[in-house]
Amino acid sequence: MEEIRNKIKESGLVSIDLADFKPDRSSIVGFDIADQLWQGLVLKEKDFRNFIATNDWSVFAGKNVYVFCSADAIVPTWAYMLVCSKLKDIAAFSIAGNEIDLQKFLIQQKIDAFDLSQHSAGRFIVKGCADIPCPEFAMVSLTLKLQTVAKSIMYGEPCSTVPIYKAPKK
Questions:
Q1: I need a labelling partner for 57 at 20 to 30 A (CA). Which of 36, 51, 94, 100 fits?
Q2: Of the residues 61, 78, 102, which one is the last residue of a structural domain?
Q3: 133 Cβ contact partners less than 8 Å away, ≥ 6 residues apart
């Protein structure tokens, strides 16, 4: 009887699971400026600055915070700047935008930090069934990063892949 061999492992394919780049949802929180609008319509600078100075910001310690306004109101840019400035030394990171904007940023950080030094001229398979909020963004970003060292990039599972990139012959 012949020994069972793992041909996928022997092929030198590097399998990358997009789920590895998924941000920790428990570290993501939002701050809604709408709660500080006067009569739900406008932001009064003096009142808002007082709120910034006296609010207990410790609930955001170590968190990734997206600053947004859920009300249909015109919020001046400086309001986002004030909140994020206050959060700078408290939160892990803050961004003006929605939760998806923040998740994209966090995914991009993880992709940028992905060490490719051991994968020179690698053959990559990017698994596509990850439960992340913006898979197209993450797939494209990861593909562009891998392309700097890849011999080839495929999408899917080892048993069924779609070719994405093949390095030109030198």
A1: 100
A2: 102
A3: 99, 100, 103, 104
